[in-house]
Design a protein that fits this description.
- This protein has a two-stranded antiparallel ribbon with strand order 1-2.
- Strand 1 (106-107) and strand 2 form a beta hairpin.
- It is built from 17 helices and two strands.
- The radius of gyration is 20 Å and the shape is globular.
- The protein is mostly helical and 338 residues long.
- Helix 5 (79-102) runs parallel beside helix 8 (143-166).
- It starts with 15 loop residues before the first helix and ends with a helix.
């Protein structure tokens, strides 16, 4: 187990994504239909490339949160379906752009779209999906929900630009990195949860609670990814293990290790990250350094704390099948480390 913290009882529950999918099966089937319809275009390459990623086996966690939160609150309309579709398109467009920026070879365990069709096509289809996301937001007929999701899209872009500016910068602090993932990952999780109480006309306290739930869940999700990149399986992550290292990305485990680095270790990070001089043995050396400083365990413990914060945020809602499954989802996010 690589010294990872033991799972709690709550986190040992059956896969909550499966549970939520069973509860929300009809709604999610309609979301899938909506996604397929909105990916349609007379320009054949657009649906072909979009389908490559949209249908590549993602768990649809973000739109599932939107749908499940709406049903937890007793919402009975259809607007949540359009918002869920918008959330998924924003996420997919962001992935397309990220893979171009990172020159990634894998996405969700298969060849990335930019490797198959090239960078220009991936960027432009990502733009198409962003545009379709905004048409879906308008279809939901909620100006407040439109504001939340459109603001989230801007925050995500800001986060990605900030992270790009920090690549190979070993002076990056853990605080600066947490600000980046709050923007580039947690913002969409937060918006996905927050729009449901807005659509349902629920009190501000419930909107704030679900915003906190989504944000904390997103932070936990990203931190687990950070740790897994230095010890997970490509089959689990859907990407190459060690991608963050090879790309010189400062993630939380690296920021922690840099805080505690000896002169020799700092020279290692200078060579491999700043100078970009890496050899085949360097990833193993990086993992050894991270483990020596407890950086992977500390990152996973931080993820566990954010997951608990997400569960706590749901305490304002009556307990039902939906709230229980959403609470268990926070544990599942951390369980990906096992």
């Amino acid at each position: 187990m690589n010294g990872l913290p033991a799972k709690t009882t709550a986190e040992a529950l059956p896969d909550p994504v499966t549970t939520l999918m069973a509860l929300a099966g009809n709604d999610m089937a309609r979301v899938e239909t909506l996604l397929t319809e909105r990916m349609g275009s007379p320009v054949a390459l657009i649906p072909e490339l979009a389908n490559w990623l949209v249908n590549a086996g993602g768990k649809r966690i973000r739109p599932l949160i939107t749908v499940s939160a709406a049903r937890m609150l007793g919402y009975e309309g259809d607007g949540h379906l359009a918002l869920a579709g918008a959330v998924e398109f924003i996420h997919t467009a962001t992935l397309l752009h990220d893979d171009v920026v990172d020159d990634s070879a894998l996405r969700r365990g298969k060849e990335s779209a930019n490797q198959v069709w090239g960078n220009p096509h991936s960027v432009l289809v990502g733009d198409f999906l962003f545009a379709q996301a905004f048409t879906l937001m308008v279809d939901a007929r909620s100006l407040d929900a439109l504001h939340v999701l459109s603001r989230a899209a801007a925050i995500i872009a800001e986060g990605e630009v900030r992270q790009l500016s920090m690549v190979r910068d070993i002076a990056t602090s853990r605080e600066a990195y947490m600000e980046v993932i709050d923007a580039k990952t947690a913002a969409l999780f937060a918006a996905a949860a927050r729009v449901s109480p807005i659509l349902a006309g629920r009190p501000k306290a419930e909107e704030d609670a679900l915003n906190t739930y989504g944000r904390e869940l997103g932070l936990a999700f990203q931190l687990v990814d950070d740790a897994l990149d230095y010890g997970g399986l490509a089959a689990i992550l859907g990407k190459n293990t060690g991608d963050d290292f090879r790309e010189g990305k400062i993630t939380l485990p690296v920021a922690i290790a840099l805080e505690r680095a000896s002169d020799e270790e700092r020279a290692f990070w200078q060579r491999t990250f700043v100078d970009g001089d890496q050899n085949e043995a360097d990833l193993d050396e990086a993992i050894a350094i991270l483990k020596h400083h407890g950086a992977l365990d500390e990152t996973l413990e931080a993820a566990r704390g954010h997951a608990q914060n997400a569960r706590s945020a749901l305490s304002v809602f009556p307990e039902n099948d939906w709230s229980q499954a959403l609470s268990a989802l926070a544990g599942f996010v951390v369980d990906r480390a096992y």
